[in-house]
From TrEMBL:
Residues 236-407 form the Peptidase M28 domain. This is Peptide hydrolase. Belongs to the peptidase M28 family. M28E subfamily. The lineage of its organism: Eukaryota, Fungi, Dikarya, Basidiomycota, Ustilaginomycotina. PANTHER family: AMINOPEPTIDASE YDR415C-RELATED (PTHR12147:SF56), METALLOPEPTIDASE M28 FAMILY MEMBER (PTHR12147).
Length: 435
């Protein structure tokens, strides 16, 4: 998830200190916006405007700190790279920079990075209201059918696997999508997932390659009764994102909760299901997306590639942050109610009430909150379950060095509830093929 807060002057100071740059007194400065002016040419034409273009702090000390850091950290040389972003459903996209995207994260502003969609023919989403759903015509079951099967699956679920997997996954310095460790952590995860399904002939795992080097991982489970006429139809997608970020991207970012927790939630659900011999009737997929923190970049490319091939999943559930219970609060499952499919969200709430040991609670996250939004963009019903209400989620530690499994409030017991939810989601929508 991509919500945090910081100051640009502090960013400059920490950037320099982190690379043993020049010593300087504390700096003061402000972020300014350039004059609004139309963009000369793009596939969005009149719908896109070049504003606001964020500039460096004017304070000489901040400039010296950033200049020194840029010479030593390759990533900082990319800060001026132009990027097309959209921050609200009812606003035009605008051009900013990588530095501008950092500022959006610091100010707790969700956004799509639409740069790669120029020329794709897929327009930015226009929601009539903040609570609306683009896919109201889709319907989902109003009851459950697989309690017996899922009871056996739940008995197999353990926190041992998530603990071991998350310990390894958070051992990388960070999983920033443009970094070398971002690539290495993705390859480590790929091997882990391949090992879980190595002996299952009806499961395939592949990478969706991205230009930035950290790839998304897509796992396909062929349904037992999928016919050639149904090729390209997927009953459900369970997703999480595999990258992490610090407020200053090249600094350490263990990302245990955001979104290491969602990543291992999917793996444990898959392991527990397979341990009971599960094969769905219909095709199911598990996705681990790259570059969510960069503006939903990985999931946008995946969703648009599927749309271009005519592959339209019937439902998508995002699991982003599943392991935190704020001290002093009740453990609950946050059901996001804005910018999602209302019918699918009602179905997810039914699953929580039926199969989980903790209650649901409604919450709102805003536009472009996580990877489910990329599927909404291409017309796929999507939903999002999170560890708590937005206000009670792990806002103080995500995107910092403190997002670790040892942090106060981090709970593998809570994570296990989301393993149950993921298992129920794919079984109830994909079915259970009897041998």
């Amino acid at each position: 998830m991509r919500l945090s807060t910081f100051s640009l002057a502090t960013a400059a100071a920490l950037a320099a200190v982190s690379v043993q740059s020049i010593h300087a007194a504390p700096c003061h400065g402000s972020v300014t916006e350039s004059t609004t002016r139309p963009l000369i040419s793009s596939s969005y034409q009149a719908d896109v405007f070049e504003t606001p273009m964020l500039e460096l702090p004017s304070a000489p000390a901040a400039m010296r700190l950033l200049a020194g850091a840029i010479r030593r950290v390759p990533f900082l040389g990319e800060l001026s790279e132009p990027r097309l972003v959209q921050t609200a459903h009812d606003q035009h996209p605008y051009w900013t920079t990588e530095l501008g995207k950092m500022y959006l994260r610091w100010s707790r502003q969700n956004f799509f990075d639409l740069t790669a969609t120029l020329g794709s023919g897929i327009e930015p989403i226009r929601f009539p209201t903040t609570a609306s759903s683009l896919v109201q015509s889709s319907s989902f079951p109003n009851t459950t059918y697989h309690e017996k099967h899922l009871k056996g699956v739940f008995a197999e679920i353990s926190d041992a696997g998530p603990k071991e997997n998350l310990k390894g996954f958070t051992s990388f310095r960070n999983r920033y999508y443009r970094s070398e460790t971002g690539k290495q952590s993705q390859q480590w995860l790929l091997k882990l997932i391949q090992g879980v399904v190595a002996d299952v002939p009806y499961i395939s795992v592949r990478e969706h390659k991205h230009s930035w080097g950290q790839n998304s991982i897509l796992l396909h489970i062929s349904g037992a009764k999928s016919s050639s006429a149904e090729q390209g139809h997927i009953a459900a997608v369970a997703g999480a994102h595999l990258d992490s970020t610090h407020q200053i991207p090249f600094l350490p970012a263990p990302g245990a909760d955001d979104d290491g927790s969602g990543t291992v939630t999917l793996i444990e659900a898959l392991r527990a299901l397979l341990s009971k011999g599960w094969r769905p009737v219909k095709d199911i997929e598990f996705h681990w997306y790259s570059a969510e923190e960069g503006g939903l970049l990985g999931s946008q490319e995946v969703a648009q590639a599927y749309a271009a091939k005519g592959v339209r999943p019937s439902a998508m559930l995002q699991q982003d942050m599943t392991a935190f219970v704020k001290p002093g609060t009740e453990a609950r499952v946050g059901i996001v109610s804005d910018f999602v499919s209302t019918p699918l969200t009602d179905f997810v709430r039914l699953l929580v009430n039926t199969y989980l040991e903790i209650p649901p609670v409604e919450t709102k996250l805003g536009y472009a909150g996580s990877d489910h939004a990329s599927w909404t963009k291409v017309g796929v019903p999507s939903a999002f379950a999170i560890e708590a209400t937005f206000e009670d989620s792990n806002l103080q530690r995500i995107h910092t060095t403190g997002d670790t499994i040892d942090a106060p409030g981090f709970s593998f017991d809570h994570l296990v509830q989301f393993v149950r939810l993921t298992s129920a989601f794919v079984v109830e929508l994909g079915g259970w093929a009897e041998k």
